[in-house]
Backbone:
């Protein structure tokens, strides 16, 4: 007889919930959703009707259920710390939608709470599960590019003003930031995993005339790496109609270029590497969220398997904290108008 399904609760049933719910339904038999909660009655009813999953009318019903082994937290960033503390205090593992929280101090407290209570903390940085992303991390781990000479990130997103007109969007109080913490964090996370952390960052950040919002919709940075490598970042939500994110790494032995879901690499020995599929032409505005739930499925399945096996979860709080420290350093550099060390 097989193992009993891994029992999960969900808190937060907004825009981020759909791909998670679809992934959890695809994992039927391995995972069981015991209860889902939103403070909004309409969202609870809509979620139950769409996905056929059970809902409850309080978070207490989830935190008080000893059979629930992990909680999937999909609420706005400014609520994360308190919810994580409650889950960790109830000995429930946590799978948390990015970012960890709205400030570096609160993000560090999220990681510390899970460490203190001995529960796993996974973070939803699902782009790591693309075949192209894995290929990039693999060739870097193998040293195929050699020492990094040049490294760049480009995130060209488009968000209409209506996106920021939603209450709380792009504010310090709810989201903690703009394009860097909300959109570019996925690419920054992957970049840091592949290229390593820089030693110094000089950043600029601003709100462009395209949007009326509180936080930045454009940011650029120059970076230095140990060993003499240099790099750049450009990220914006003003780039109509949007384009796939890009990471390019130039090393002593070759060049690797990741464009959305495809990687191409060329090596000095004449060999090449191609993995994944080129992003499809949309003929218009690039969608805000990809329609597929495949990456969320892979991430949740990996998270559950790690807990069952007693091994560290692959995309953990420390990895997410590195990306958040990078963003915090860039924004502080922009505010202080000087280069800052990145530790």
Residues:
């Amino acid at each position: 007889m097989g193992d009993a399904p891994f029992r999960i609760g969900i808190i937060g049933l907004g825009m981020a919930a759909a791909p998670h719910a679809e992934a959890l339904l695809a994992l039927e038999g391995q995972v069981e959703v015991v209860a889902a909660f939103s403070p909004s009655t309409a969202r609870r009813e809509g979620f139950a009707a769409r996905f056929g999953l059970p809902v409850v009318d309080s978070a207490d019903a989830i935190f008080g259920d000893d059979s629930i082994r992990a909680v999937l937290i999909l609420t706005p960033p400014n609520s994360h710390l308190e919810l994580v503390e409650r889950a960790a205090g109830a000995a429930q593992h946590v799978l948390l939608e990015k970012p960890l929280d709205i400030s570096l101090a609160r993000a560090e407290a999220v990681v510390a709470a899970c460490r203190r209570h001995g529960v796993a903390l996974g973070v939803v940085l699902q782009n790591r599960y693309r075949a192209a992303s894995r290929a990039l991390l693999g060739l870097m781990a193998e040293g195929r590019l050699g020492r990094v000479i040049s490294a760049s990130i480009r995130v060209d997103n488009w968000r209409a003003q209506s996106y920021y007109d939603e209450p709380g969007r792009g504010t310090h109080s709810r989201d903690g930031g703009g394009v860097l913490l909300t959109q570019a964090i996925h690419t920054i996370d992957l970049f840091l995993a592949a290229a390593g952390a820089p030693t110094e960052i000089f950043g600029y950040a601003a709100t462009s005339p395209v949007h009326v919002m509180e936080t930045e919709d454009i940011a650029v940075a120059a970076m230095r790496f140990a060993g003499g490598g240099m790099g750049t970042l450009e990220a914006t939500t003003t780039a109509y109609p949007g384009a796939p994110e890009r990471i390019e790494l130039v090393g002593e032995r070759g060049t690797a270029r990741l464009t959305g879901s495809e990687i191409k690499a060329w090596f000095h020995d004449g060999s090449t590497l191609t993995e994944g599929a080129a992003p499809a032409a949309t003929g218009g505005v690039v969608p805000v969220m990809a329609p597929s739930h495949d990456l969320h499925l892979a991430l949740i399945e990996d998270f559950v398997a790690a807990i069952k096996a007693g091994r560290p979860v692959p995309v953990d709080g420390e990895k997410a904290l590195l990306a958040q420290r990078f963003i915090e350093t860039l924004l502080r550099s922009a505010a202080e108008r000087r280069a800052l060390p990145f530790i």
